Amino acid sequence: MGSAKNTGSATRKARIEEMRRADRSRERRGRVLTIVVSGVVVVALAGVGAWAVTKGDDSSKDSADAKSSAGSFKTGADGVKTWTGKLTRNHVAKKVTYPMTPPVGGDHNQVWMNCNGDVYKKPIANENAVHALEHGAVWVTYTDKADPGDVQKLAAKVRQTPYSLMSPDKDQKDPIMLSAWGHQRTVKSATDPDVASFFSMFVQGKQTPEPGAACTNGLSQ
């Protein structure tokens, strides 16, 4: 009897000890899991923080790029002004605020203004005209201060010149101005030699982003 009791007691002690070991093992696993989860959370938070910093840096860079792309005109010895900033070429369906008047490039409407020697009697949308410049056209603009005789002579020249167009622009600072993609100049009259040289250099010139693109089948008044 005593031996049986001792055996049963030993068995219970062994079972209890086994249960204690199991409990200690679960506690250790729990601590390890807690440490691992905490580490993952810390790494995740650090990643989010780094992303936020990087995103902030990217935003600053985008702002800086946008600012630097504004640019300005640099006037050459021949009197032709060249835009020094980046001229974007995205197609947009909204009005665009250009940093120069008339504009010489930038985002524009997906439909170009017909520029196959087209002369418009009314102002045209800058967004369509800029698309024509992208195709290599020269755009002649004038105000009501331009001499009517000069306007007629310039209109005759435009009608004889594929990849050119003409329209009034009351907002420009000089009576007669010539524009191409990224380039612009003022001329004194229709007989100013700079008119011929500007046309010769920029009608489908090297500045053209899309040489050979159509100047017909676009928008007309």
TrEMBL record:
Ranges annotated as spanning the membrane: 30-53
A Pfam short name: DUF3105
Source domain of life: Bacteria
UniProt cross-references to InterPro entries, sorted A to Z: DUF3105 (IPR021454)
Region Disordered, annotated ranges: 1-27, 54-75
Chain intervals with Polar residues compositional bias: 1-10
Skewed-composition ranges (Basic and acidic residues): 14-26, 55-65
Keywords from the named record: Membrane, Transmembrane, Transmembrane helix
Species lineage: Bacteria, Bacillati, Actinomycetota, Actinomycetes, Kitasatosporales
Official protein name in the record: DUF3105 domain-containing protein
Organism: Streptomyces aureus
